Model the fold of this input.
Amino acid sequence: MEVNQDNMAIIGLYKLAPVDIDHLFRRSGSKGNQLSLFTYNAEQGATTDPSEYFKELADSPNLNRVARHLLTPAVKLEFNRGGAASAEETYHAFLSLEDNDVLVQFVDSEDNILLLLFDNEESFWQWWADIYAANADSIYPSVFTDSLETEVLVCALHAIDIYRRSYMESMLEYQGNLGLDISTADFVDLLKRALASKDKRWLLPTLFEVTPGLKGSTIALKPEHLQKAEELGFFSSNENILTLGERTQLMGAEMITSWLGSIGCQATALVNGQEKSLSRIFMTATAFANHIFSFETAAGGGTRFRHQASTMPELIQSLLKWIEALQKVVGGTPPAAATQAEAPAVKFCGECGTEIRSGKKFCTGCGKPV
Done:
């Protein structure tokens, strides 16, 4: 991940070694919460030295802001990137209810931790969209209506992949015409093979591989799902033969010529002391639109989705509204972290970081008066 340090939206850029996390707990006095990726090892923190990277954060006015987001976040966003020829990435972003800061965490090839602190959510999403979204056209025809069962999306994306497959086969065989017909049995068989392959060169497997937690949802394909995809123009049926429709051909050509890869994101928070998924989104960017699919749990089990094809400005506004909705949900539930955040802060030596026990006038680590 390349970071533009001249970007004024980034108010802090820090690098930490894994050993530094225990020292961040000690220096900030944080107890952490169950949403954090880290837990405090008091013994290791007391018997090890911080790395050379830690001093920059320790001396920074952003120390407590970084610690609050990293160790006691209110909302955690997990991002996965993949699909087409895009580089694969996994990273996290953390939000607090106390301010509008956003902390983004990457891990490099040597397991060092890269932290980016943004001063507000709009700056974060603008930075994010500049990297992952497309400057797409302003007009895109409506594809999916209202909220639909996720199985309908599975059928639609699989139809697009079959069109791409037919296109490539016609090229290999030097054929001018594409095969647009497939039996229902072959359609279902290829669907099972696609999901089992986990091959992110194809759109359908990418949906489940990069969207955190989606593979754990219940997917039960039924005839009515194929019928709904047919009503939306993805194919037509005649007895046991499916013919790829105009919608499949248009979106298939879009993916063949300009699929830029996909991003999956899951938002979680503490609910009654346990980490719970609040929402999931999946974005596929092309030269024509930023396709955003948001998922919600259906009343009787399974999942439903909504689709929006957006320009970059529209995408940023939608993501800001999404975050606002998440914070309202979290703000209305008393996460276990609130009790921990109200606990008295532990004091540490500003010189060496050793814990200052009650009643002591000198640091037991370096001897400095306190």
Notes: The chain has two domains: 10-132+336-341, 148-270+277-309. The first strand starts at residue 10 and ends at 16.
